[in-house]
Amino acid sequence: MPYKTSFVTVALALVSATSSAQADIGTAIPLRKRNSLTGPDGTFNYVATIEHGVKIANKHRNNLLNFRRNTGRLPEGVSAIPPPAVLDHIKGHSHKRQKVPLTDLNDDEEWAGNISIGTPPVTFFVDFDTGSSDLWVPASSCTGCRGARGKYNIAKSSTGAKMSGNFTITYADGSGASGPVFTDNVVVGGVKAATQYFSAVTDESSELAEDGTDGILGLAYPQISNLGQNPFFTTAIAQGTTKQDVFAFKLARNGSELYVGGTNAAHYSGAIEYHNLSSHIGYWQIGGASAHVNGKTVGGIATFQTIIDSGTTIMYGPPADVKKVYAAVPGSKVYDEDQGLYSYPCNSPPAIAFSWGGKWWDITSDNLNLGTTGSNTEECVGSLAGLDLGLGSGIWLLGDSFMKNVYTAFSVSQNAVGFAKLK
Ligand SMILES: *[C@@H]1O[C@H](CO)[C@@H](O)[C@H](O)[C@H]1NC(C)=O
Ligand SMILES: *[C@@H]1O[C@H](CO)[C@@H](O)[C@H](O)[C@H]1NC(C)=O
Ligand SMILES: *[C@@H]1O[C@H](CO)[C@@H](O)[C@H](O)[C@H]1NC(C)=O
Ligand SMILES: *[C@@H]1O[C@H](CO)[C@@H](O)[C@H](O)[C@H]1NC(C)=O
Does residue 165 have its Cβ closer than 6 Å to ligand 2? Predict the structure, then answer.
């Protein structure tokens, strides 16, 4: 059970971190965003949205498999690992598929920025993902990996070491990456984790190779690590290299950033409303949530759990609950029953908000809108979808469509997620 050892290390480090010398400041890492679920003409990209849903379902299925391997059990409320999600159901929707601007498909749904690995450091452009816990980048020996910036070559790093075992991640039929495991120095915005476990993948499916980033840096907890090791931020905390055991995201059209080692007061106003994690299964999961439409709490939905996941583009909830949300939206219609997608009149978008017992955090009409249902329609597809992701009953997954509305802080010292008003 490597994760148990990891927790001991972290706990000790938290104590020592208060007394030992620290890096002086948190550091901002600029992020780049490309948005793909809406086509260049403003229409909804159906295929990209379904593909994203399949990828997210499989990502969280992988997390469950990792959790079971690391802890010997399944999280409470999950009775079985769901079967892998597949793309088959697209076939029944060829009429919708045809109106998809396919040229946009490889544009991506991630928030990516630079990190460095090794001595001397090599720069990699990675997706920062609060919904997974491993770091992987391409290996120099990987011929199929495109590599936006760098490729890792153990022979060229004086601080690298090869470890035993292999890393594997699979998202859908044929989509995934795998490779051997190493440790080396990893630096994210000036915060260093020495002997950080990661994989330099030697095999990468074309879908991932072409997505414009080098790899992924997972920012969730050790329990869901495929490597069964501490993720970057846990290591940095254990080594006392972060000023505060907090990182925070501003996700916006302009000026997005990940701030490591604290929060960046330049980007938010007022206090941060923190909520303790409701579960310690490896996710940034907080409970006691409710949904609101046009100033009223949606009835008939018990307070629910939410996983805050920067690696998910939209928002997903249990199909029956999401149906209740849209039932409260005047003029809403089912757009695609299988995918739990709904539309609403573009000229009178609903005010949808979530709360966790404190403020109501509104989703702007821009962030709710995934695009029009066609080139000349007045119906817009909503970024809240009803899809069963096998995460357990009553668990919602709030991705970028939510995070773009707030400043989001992830506190390891408090085991809490906080929201503040964006400046
Ligand atoms: C990442 O680093 C490269 C140089 O290696 C630079 O051109 C690029 O702008 C950086 N990207 C971001 C988002 O900081
Ligand atoms: C890791 O993968 C390599 C290459 O596929 C294989 O030779 C090796 O046996 C694997 N190791 C483990 C521990 O699975
Ligand atoms: C992004 O920032 C630039 C320069 O500050 C501004 O001209 C542009 O309108 C902004 N774009 C958005 C979508 O806010
Ligand atoms: C949150 O957790 C802290 C311990 O980390 C505890 O002191 C505090 O009372 C908790 N807050 C709530 C609202 O449960």
Answer: yes
